[in-house]
Design a protein that fits this description.
It is a single chain. By secondary structure, the chain is an alpha+beta fold. The protein has 3 helices and 12 strands. The strands form 4 sheets. The chain has a 4-stranded antiparallel β-sheet, with no helix packed on it. A hairpin with a 2-residue loop joins strand 4 and strand 5.
Length: 214
């Protein structure tokens, strides 16, 4: 009998020890499982460059001008930009003294209207309604998608209200657009000459540039 009880007691202790080991292993597995779903983040950044482009196809020719009877033509500049604050459109003539020279004699010119100055008259510009002769330009309300300034170019496109200026010798702002996208700007030209103007073909160029607003 004594031997029987000793054997039973040994078995019981072995079982208790085994149970404790199982519990310990289960606890370790639980701890490992709770740490297997940790997270972390990475930051992604990129700077998208500002892009801007302008195209100004040649306008139709003025054609034949009879002194005293003005002729007109229009050029449309299309600007595309992703700059959220838009852009400015600037213009200048490419000849040092006047825009149009006689093709056979560059010293014979057609007079320009008073050169455009956007800063004149405390920022109101110096364009004026049409009178007399010369070559003048203006931004037109019709055909200009955004940024048209009635202070600079007149309340509308009628000859009574439209304002003209001469092309400047250096770039000056003629339009300020405050948003991104693709926009058109219609630039009108008007020309008349006095009766004494030398007959012949006169040529010249104007250049437009766009600059992204800050």
């Amino acid at each position: 009998m004594k031997e029987f009880f000793r054997t039973k007691t040994k078995i019981t202790r072995s079982a208790i020890i085994a149970s404790l080991v199982v519990v310990a292993i289960f606890g370790v597995l639980q701890a490992m499982e709770s740490k297997s779903a940790t997270t972390d983040q990475v930051n992604l950044t990129v700077d998208v460059a500002s892009v801007i482009d302008v195209t100004c196809p040649d306008p139709s020719a003025f054609g034949t001008l009879t002194p005293g009877t003005a002729v007109t033509t229009t050029a449309t500049c299309t600007t595309t930009t992703n700059n959220s604050t838009g852009y400015i459109l600037q213009a200048k003539r490419d000849d040092a003294d006047t825009t149009l020279d006689l093709s056979t004699d560059a010293t014979t010119n057609i007079t320009d209207k008073t050169a455009w100055d956007s800063t004149a008259n405390t920022g109101d510009g110096n364009a004026a309604t049409w009178s007399g002769t010369g070559l003048g330009f203006r931004v037109m309300q019709t055909g200009t998608d955004s940024g048209y300034s009635s202070t600079w170019w007149g309340s509308d496109d009628t000859l009574t209200n439209a304002k003209f200026a001469g092309l400047p010798s250096a770039y000056d702002t003629i339009l300020d657009v405050s948003s991104a996208g693709e926009t058109d700007a219609a630039v009108g030209f008007r020309l008349d000459v006095p009766a004494a103007q030398t007959a012949g073909t006169y040529t010249g160029t104007a250049t437009f540039q766009v600059t992204a607003n800050p």
